[in-house]
Structure formats: C-alpha cells, structure tokens
Structure prediction request, 285 residues.
Amino acid sequence: MRRVVVTGANKGIGKAIAIRILAEQTDTFVYLGARNAPRGQAARDEILATQPDWSDRLAVLQLDVTDADSIARAAAQVAPLFGLVNNAGTGEGDLQTILGVNFFGLRAVTEQMLPLLDETNGRIVQVSSASGPMFVSRCSPARQQAFTNPDITRQDLDALIDAVNQHGASPQDLAQHGFGDGRAYGLSKALVNAYTILLARERPNLTINACTPGFIETDMTRHYAVASGQTPAQMGMKQPMDGALSPLFLLFGDVQGNGRFYGSDAKRSPLDRYRSPGDPEYTGD
Prediction:
C-alpha cells in the first residue's frame, strides 16, 4: 500500500486531491493533513459518509506547516512514504505570514519528510500557482535569472530570501528592487518553484515537480467573485476536483523530467511567464 501525505487537505483543493487519490488509486493510503485536527476529522467523516469503503485508507494527520513540533510529530507517524503533496497555502496576511505558510512552511515539511520517501520511486508535488511565473515575468532580468536558474544552490536561494527580507518593508519597496509587482503571494510561489528546481537536482532519484491547480473556487478565491458582482463560474473559476488534475498527474503519471512547473492542464509550463491551459506545451530548457 502506497502512502501519501496531502497537506491542507480538510477543504478545497487539498480535500479534492485526497478524494481523487482514493477514488483512482485503490492501492494508496492517504494521510489527510489538517492544521486543525477536529476540522480534519470532520472532513474525513464527510468523505466516508458517501464512501465508507475508504475508511481503512484514510487517516487524519494533524499538521500545522508553520509549527516545527507539529511537523516533527506528523513525520513520526507516516513512514514509509511514497508521496508528499504540499498543498497548504494562504493568500491572506502580510508578507511574513504568506511566506511563512506558502514557502517556509512548505520547505520545512519537505525537509522533514524527505528521509521518509521511497528512495527510488518517491514523489513530491508542490501545489504552486501561475502567480509564480507571472510574478517572475515582471521582475528585473537579474531577479528573473535568479528565480529560474537551473543550477540554483541553497546559497543562491538564501541570497534571494535575504534580499526579500532586506527590501520587504512594502510591495513598492520590493518592486523598486526588482521583485516584480512586490506582491507577497506571487513572490511566495516563485520561491516555491525555485526551491523545486533545487530539490530535484539534489535528489535526482525522486520525482519532484510543481504545478498550478488553476483558477479554482475556494475560500481563498471566492472573494474575487463577490467583489466583482459575478458568480465564480462567470469569472472562469473551476471546481476543486478540476484543480486536482495536475497534482494527480505529477503524483502518479508518467512524468518526464524533474524540477519542472506544470499548468493546470498537466502540461509543462515556463517558470517566467504565464501559459494558458490548452496552449502548446513548453519545451524549453
């Protein structure tokens, strides 16, 4: 039985990923990661209310990606692992809050879980966002090169983070120093994509890639529709089950290459500009 951890899985895209794994991969056990254990249990109960046969393949895993002790406790419960899906994220709060969840939290979970992964078949899926490449497209040439460098080192990544900390007093300050439009969410996802490149090069025997789930109706995006006076569907938002397409492909599909970024249609996409679903697949270096 393959074991997979999905973070932030008590609702939205994470929950949809868990459901699709259980439905499509009958040899796979899912740890439903949730910062709040009762909410995780409620999500498990809701899933099993319609699919009771999944009860022996679904467990709640209390996991707060911003809490080192929580991460360590979670890691002690899940070995051995086939896959890790880093889905937990936020678009709310200041720069440090958003980076703390979307980048530093993701990195902390990944580093803790790495030793638990199957050394030859293990997979890591970073649920990133098209906001990452769009952010990079607005950066200065030097910053673009830093975010997309195929030979990026941990020292290079630390230098990027140091520059963000130095100039992160405001989005305007970041923008003036080459960091795109200075928005924290896109920056956090650009850092995730750069970390994915680094990690895949360090661990070539694992399959490690990032993807965007697409423009999906969740608690994090629904306010855009409310503000516009439109329904989520009218704005082009899809449902969470649609957002699970690319993560499922990267977790179980015949993935060629490593350290790459994929669109919501499960096709490879560039790291420095937006590629629309349905457009020709990116084939660059």
User: Anything to note?
Assistant: The first strand starts at residue 2 and ends at 6. The chain has a mean pLDDT of 94. The two ends are 36 Å apart (CA to CA).
